[in-house]
Amino acid sequence: MPDQTAWIAIVLSTAVLLLVLYTIRMLRHDRPTAATAVAPPLNEMEQACLQTLQTVVAGEYRIICKAPIAELTAGYGKQADQIVDFILYDDVQHQTAAAIWLQQPGHKLQAQLQKSAEQAGIPVFRLQRKTSYSILEMRQLLAPLLKKPLPTPDEMVATISMEALYLCQRCQSRMHIKRANSGTQKGTLFWVCEQYPDCRHIEPYAD
Fold it and tell me: Where are the alpha helices (DSSP H) in the chain?
């Protein structure tokens, strides 16, 4: 009996030890890293840029917001925690297609990081910080990366701005740019609720 009791104690001790080691391993595995940490929120200018990018690259690339520079390539050392505003990622090829920075005047480190990314073969686009971005201009900028056909007439005049981020005042749905095809306002652009004709809220479009 004493031998049996000793064996039971050894088995239980071993099981407890394995459970502790497994728990420690899982805690380390779940600890957020620079690559998995939650991205900081976007300001209004960044949201406007993101909305335009989503329209232009939809179906071709996945957009990663506020990613560490280390996501692009290794070798940044102490600069690895610097943030890239947007990364265009090709899920088919499993590789980064491009990096996009919203320029910060006089930001020397940003220029150095751009050079490092380009040396790694990753195209870098630096955009001015604005309250609105033209879909057509964004298409032209990213043209070397896109496989989509030429923009439609609506896209050629559409601009996503901070106003575009506002919701319909009547039903809280998104607003879209439409051109009047007839009547006294023919040719004029308007913000039209996406729930039209169920919701007929319309606002004049100001470029």
Answer: 2-30, 44-57, 108-119, 135-141, 153-157
The two tokens of residue 46 are 């960044």
Whether the CB-CB separation of 178 and 189 falls below 8 Å is answered with yes
For residue 198 the two structure tokens come to: 């169920």
Longest dimension (CA), the chain: 102
What one-character-per-residue DSSP string does 85-100 give?
Answer: EEEEEETTTTEEEEEE
190 with 177: CB under 8 angstroms?
yes
- Which among 125, 128, 165, 155 is positioned nearest to 142, based on CA atoms? 125
Instruction: Name the residue among 79, 54, 78, 75 with its Cα closest to residue 64.
Output: 54
CA 15 to CA 99: how far, in whole Å?
49
Quick: pLDDT tens for 37-74. Answer: 455 688 888 888 998 998 889 889 999 998 887 766 55
Tokens of 168: 């319909």
Pairing of β 124-127 and β 132-134: unpaired
**CB-based contacts of 12, cutoff 8 Å, min separation 6:** none
pLDDT of the residue at 168? 85
Bridge partner residues of 159 (DSSP):
134
Does the pLDDT of residue 147 top 70, yes or no? yes
